[in-house]
Amino acid sequence: MFIKDNRERFLEYRNNKKLIGLVTLVLVILVIGGFLFFKMFNKKNIPDKVIGDRPPIQVVLLNPNPYSRPQIPLKKVNGIVIHYTANPGTSAIKNRDYFNGLQYSKKTKASSHFIVGLEGEIVQCIPCKEISYASNSRNKDTISIECCIEDNTGKFNKKTYKSVVQLTAWLVGRYKLSCEDIIRHYDITGKICPKYFVEHPKAWEKFKNDVQEYIDKNGVKTAE
């Protein structure tokens, strides 16, 4: 009787151990499968091409100061934010000088990494490894591009538009982003900026499509 009881206990223990092992295996498979499923359906449409050559950029950095260039590290870039200057007829360098002058006027905190002018010139104000004061809660993880405008419609002229497309396309590749990561200031705060792209959503979609087409046409294949 004693031997029989021990044998039954042993068989019960062995069966329980097998059951626990089977349940553990099923759980592991479910976790791994769920993770792979999540990655598959949440994968960004990262372009398989990048723009290798940087567009012509005039580097005229702001003086380090608390109002426009605080020199806070930008540790991770998760997006490119498009803005407009809202002061028609002014040049890229004029807007750069305005940002630089905030250290003296102390009126507000404002700046941008890049400003694209009416002649298509690109002025860099802040190194990409530092934050700018442009995109509110997204200052910490985005690169900002201010765009000059000719009139109150806020529409970019052809030269400005062309340079913004080229600059944005280059930045998308540089930071391994997708065109889904190109956003408006409006998308962060609801501010009407850039005005024309907020008031004309189809023009905004066309802009992102133009960036993608520029990458497809002029980009080079990324390493596997």
UniProtKB/TrEMBL annotation:
GO biological process entries: cell wall organization; peptidoglycan catabolic process; peptidoglycan turnover
Entry keyword Cell cycle: no
PANTHER family cross-referenced by the UniProt entry: N-ACETYLMURAMOYL-L-ALANINE AMIDASE AMID
UniProt protein name: N-acetylmuramoyl-L-alanine amidase
InterPro entries for this protein: Amidase/PGRP_sf, Amidase_domain, NAMLAA_amidase_2
Gene3D superfamilies: Peptidoglycan recognition protein-like (3.40.80.10)
Listed SMART domains: Ami_2
Annotated Pfam families: Amidase_2 (PF01510)
Transmembrane segments: 20-41
Record-level Gene Ontology MF annotations: N-acetylmuramoyl-L-alanine amidase activity
Keywords assigned by UniProt, alphabetized: Cell wall biogenesis/degradation, Hydrolase, Membrane, Transmembrane, Transmembrane helix
UniProt keyword Hydrolase present: yes
EC numbers: 3.5.1.28
Domain N-acetylmuramoyl-L-alanine amidase: 67-202
Domain of life: Bacteria
Catalytic activity annotation: Hydrolyzes the link between N-acetylmuramoyl residues and L-amino acid residues in certain cell-wall glycopeptides
